Structures are given as structure tokens and as C-alpha cells.
Amino acid sequence: MSELKSSMIDSVMDALGDVKDPEIASVSILDLGMVHEVDVTDDKVRISVLPTFSGCPALHIIERDIKKAIENVEGITSAEVKFVFTPSWTTDRITPEGRESLKEFGISPPPANHVMGEPWEIDCPYCGSTYVTMENIFGPTACRSILYCKSCKNPFEAMKPVADMG
Amino acid sequence: MTQETLKPQEKKALIELLYQLADDDFLLAFRGSEWLGLAPHIEEDVAFSSISQDMMGHANLYYNLLENIGEGEADRIAHLRSPNQFRNAIILEEVNGPGTYLKEPDYDWAFTVVRNYFYAVHKHIRLDSLRHSSYEPLAEAARKIMTEQYYHLMHWEIWFKQLMTSTDEAILRMTAAIQKVWKDFGGVLTLGPYYEDIVKANLIDDENVMKKRWNNKIEAVLKEVGASYPGEPRMERGNGRNGVHTEDLKQATATLSEVYATNPATGW
């Protein structure tokens, strides 16, 4: 890879770091592990993105924001965004930084290596207590659940674990 | 198989199957969305609307697969077809009960739980087969949908089992709902007139195999809650896979497409 191309990819990645989840303002799409491949050819970028939940209404906004961010990168004239399903987006793609940012937003991150069908542990994002109850496995957005911390008496949300089912 | 390697007969079978998958989810998601604000309690309102949103997303995925093999734009497929072009099972288009969500809704929660639970069990069986589909884009979509549908199945199973082992009134209402759903649930379990081509192309398992899996599962659950298994589900009002539908589908598509149809060229 030429030095120019590699520095261009760095700039594109920087720009992607500024694209936030419209519903969780503290987390970028890189933090969420949604970016699969980035390909730069001359002044054109092709990027494949893994959708989190298939009915997520934020996907169109994310697509628009990615295009906007990348087309602002110096030397880039157009960006093509494609949603792909292979590999499947799973919650273990969320980066350590992403997990911390989720907590700041009051959302407990999902367990790292979840196996579908098995119980999972969720700690309170505020006080770290494990003494919590699940109020509703479904929440305000497709990817979240609603919980309550019995220790610090705060309601909070958690990201539903999503793992590949083979 | 990919888009490029499909033979004409396989493509025809694939199109039929995709319409069934898409329309089943589309119609039941719509009936689910009509419950918004009317579910038995606020937590259920949150859960059910989330499930309906997911299912609308699943329908959208299938419509996009249709778009990719030349059936036209996904939104147009969803909104501008006439009722006889729909391939969903009849039981999934049925209204939730008397009234409308705007005026005196007297919806039947037992019917909703039974219909959604029976459908979720079958959807899981279907996806489990589709993830090995010979058509790779469909297998990929199925693997994605499965991770979400897992939570739906769990949700409806809890409702079903709890109401079936609850008060006398609950059991009475649930039993009536099972009888009602049973009359037409056979329509969900069939792959329709192109069944042989669909199976020959290895797009999905034989419908008889999946039907047996569904019957075994439901029979076991009914036994667990102390109810009797009523024998094979029927298809009394006809086969939706043939384009046979009721007035309820007309009402559903008219409502769903009311805004879109005013100006299909606009981005809604």
C-alpha cells in the first residue's frame, strides 16, 4: 500500500470516529464495531457497514452521516456506503472504549462473549452493583433493555447481547 | 447460489418464497403496530412495539432481496401491490378484533398472544432452515434475523405459558383463541403452489419436515400447560400463498399505504 493511500485511509478512519450513533450520542460507529471494510481508490471511498438491528430507523441517518463525514475529508470526492450482513454484527464487536462510552451514557454494555440462550450478567453502569433486576428485555430502541439497580435505586438501560447463532 | 448463478426456474421459486417470507412479517408487524398504546400494560407496549419494529425490518430485508433480483423498488413492492399479489398466510392479515385503533378498539389479547406465539415458533423453525439456504443472500439475511427473533420467541412463549396456566377466564379466552387460530394456521405452514420447485432448489427444507417440527413443538407445549392438541391445523379460508385473501388484507394495505400512495416519488 502506498504511503499516500495509507494516510488517506487514516484520514477516513478519523472522520468515521466522528460519526456517532444518532440514538447514543457518546458512541461512534467505530466504537460499536459497525464498520466492516474501508476501501479507498483515488478520490473515492467504499465502505461496508454492519447494521446493528435490521429494523433500526437510525440506519438511514448513519448512512447519511457517514457520507457527509467522508466527503469532507480532503482529497475525497465521493463515498459509497453499503450495508452488509456477513459477518453479522454482534455485540462482542463493541470496542473497550465503546463499552466505557456506553456506560457514560447510562447504558450497561453487553457481556463480551455471550452465547445465545445462556443467562447474562449486567452490572449497574452508575454504581457497578450486580444487584439489579430486568424490568423489560425490550426498551426504547431495538438494541436496549430496561433494568433497575436495587443498590443505587436508579433505572438504567443495557444493550441486548447479540451473538452469532451459527 | 448467488444472483448471477440462479437458473430461471430457481429464480421463480425464490421470488415466490421471498414474497411469502416478506408478506408474513409485514402483515403481522402491521397488526402488531396497531396495538401501540393499547397493550395490556406499558411494559408490554414498549416490548410489542419493539418487536413489531424488528419484524417490519425483517420484511424490509426480504423486500430488498426481491429488489436485488429485479422485482422493483422495495418500497413499491411493499406499498403498491394489489391484495391478490400478496403471499402471506390469511391468519396473519386478520384484524386484532372489533373496532379500529382510532375508534373503539376492542382487540383480543388472547388471539394476539396465540397468533404471535404460534407464528414465532414457526418463524424460528423456518429461519433455522433458511440459514442453510442454497441462495447465499437469503441465508445471510436469515442468520441476521435469527439473532433478533430469538427474543421475540422468548417473549411470546412467556405470555402463552403464563396465560394458559392463569385464571379460569384467561384459560377460557386462550382456548377460544387457539381454536380460532387453528382454523387457518395451516396457511402459515405451507409453501404454496411452487412448493416443489422451492424445495428442489434447496432454498428451504421440505414443508412437511418443518410442519412436523412445528406440530411436535406445539403439541409438547400444549401438554406442558395441560391443554389438548387439536390435530393438524387447517386452512379453512383458503391459501394466502395462492393470492387468496380476505377483506382484512384490503383494509391493512389501504391503511399501510395511505401516505406512500399519495406520492410514491417522494422520500417518506
UniProtKB/TrEMBL annotation, chain B:
Pfam families: PaaA_PaaC. This is Phenylacetate-CoA oxygenase subunit PaaC. InterPro entries: Aromatic_CoA_ox/epox, Ferritin-like, Ferritin-like_SF, PaaA_PaaC, PaaC. It comes from the Bacteria. It comes from Fictibacillus norfolkensis.
